[in-house]
Design goal:
The structure is a single chain. By secondary structure, the protein is an all-alpha fold. It has one domain (24-130). Helices cover 65% and strands 0% of the residues. The protein has 5 helices and no strands. The chain has helices spanning 2-13, 25-44, 51-80, 97-110, 119-130. The radius of gyration is 20 Å and the shape is globular. The model is unreliable at 1-19 (pLDDT under 50).
Length: 135
């Protein structure tokens, strides 16, 4: 049994692993600025940003939208239970993704000392600060 476990461990530990990349606040600021550039180019029918800038823009949009939807889910869960103590936001239904991105960029500009943190945690902080729930 010990030999089998040792062989299994050696096999599993020899599998190459792809490094996990976490988006920092600094990266997300650049990506979200690219998303605003892309949106403006599409709205005004002007030249599109480079393919890399378009990928950056889409990454920002996906991350901010994902965090926003998660915060909405947490709000729903919190409303169902008095024992939940989750930090969340109450984002009005008419707030657009572009407004959420601008909210993040404003927060990042006001808190440059935090930009080494993960982008998703900064988006949570930005949206919960801007759209805090009334208790």
């Amino acid at each position: 049994m010990k030999v089998t476990c040792l062989i299994l461990f050696l096999l599993v530990s020899s599998i190459p692993c792809k490094a996990i990349y976490i988006t920092s606040g600094n990266d997300l600021v650049t990506q979200c600025k690219a998303s605003l550039d892309l949106t403006a180019a599409l709205e005004h029918d002007t030249a599109l940003p480079s393919p890399q800038e378009q990928r950056d823009a889409l990454h920002c949009m996906g991350l901010v939208e994902g965090v926003s939807e998660t915060l909405d889910d947490w709000t729903f869960i919190d409303q169902q239970s008095t024992e939940t103590h989750v930090k969340h936001a109450c984002i009005p239904g008419d707030v657009t993704l572009e407004q959420e991105i601008n909210t993040f960029l404003k927060y990042a500009d006001s808190h440059p000392e935090l930009l080494h943190q993960t982008g998703s945690s900064l988006v949570i902080n930005a949206l919960t600060e801007a759209f805090h729930c009334k208790t």
